[in-house]
Fold:
Amino acid sequence: MTQPLLAPIESARVTPGTHDGQGHGSLRGYLVGYFVAVLLTIASFLAAETSALTPSSVTAAITVLAIAQMLVHLIFFLHISTSPHQRTNVLAFAVTALVVAMIVAGSLWIMSHLESNMMPSGQTMQMQP
Amino acid sequence: MNQSLLVVPIPAPHGGAVERRGVTGFGFYLYLLSDCVLFATLFAAFAVLHRSVAGGPTGPQLFDLRNAFIETACLLTSSVTCGMAMLACDRRDSRAAFAALAVTFLLGLVFLSLEFTEFAHMVSEGAGPSRSAFLSAFFMLVGTHGLHVTAGLAWLVVIVVQLRRKGFSEGVVRRMFCFSLFWHVIDVVWIAVFSFVYLIGSAS
Structure:
């Protein structure tokens, strides 16, 4: 144990501009991110126009490509990483991702149930006295 | 990629300008996360209503994927040029920073004009936000994103003017840093817009 256990927590107190190598990444990082993002964008536009896949697999493919591209942006452009400096950032991001998932998936779930339990509009007319 | 933009803000014993940048950056990051929640509600509304066309035009009839692709290319490239501006800011290279910010602004402007043209075309064809629940949700979601881009462009003008007047002062650098976060997040939201609204909307 040459390194003290508290080292990551101590370094978490470092603010930008006071630490070696602090800054906005490198040109290479941005270009790699750009290249990967362009590939993923082209892949999802091709997936949307292809006739080789069924509609549900097109939806799944575009969803996966979109999440992959968002992660590329977060890692290469926003420089979110798993380093101990960023523990709070990653935690705040994870909570937001959970809230976003709950809002979107929950709304779809509830509204699809509501729709399947609704009486077709024709039947309500027949039930009028 | 161990260079971190955002660090844990623990109040510094002496509240210098450098510490303030860390705290402001974290606070702005929390605002951006809350903005993502706002967009999530609009995406949820669109996802629920995208089949409720009320006999009007549907997504595949309205969406022009070529237009969406050019918009995506503009915003993605402007995100990278915004990163270039921040790298120039790290080097205190004002000429490179002005050039990168100018390209970012122009690409953002092209994006906005394409979006505005698309909206005007849809409204002129009778597919405005009042036509159906699907179109209300569409205009609300894509329009809110467009408003964010508009606000970002206005902010960018202010930053360029301040950079010209004050140089790389502590405040200007802090604002550039927050702007770059904002612009990257707007681009991440656009990924969701083009994937879930335009691509899935025109495929299904």
Residues 18-203 of chain B form a domain with the Four Helix Bundle (Hemerythrin (Met), subunit A) fold (CATH 1.20.120.80). The longest helix of chain B spans residues 133-166. The two ends of chain B are 38 Å apart (CA to CA).
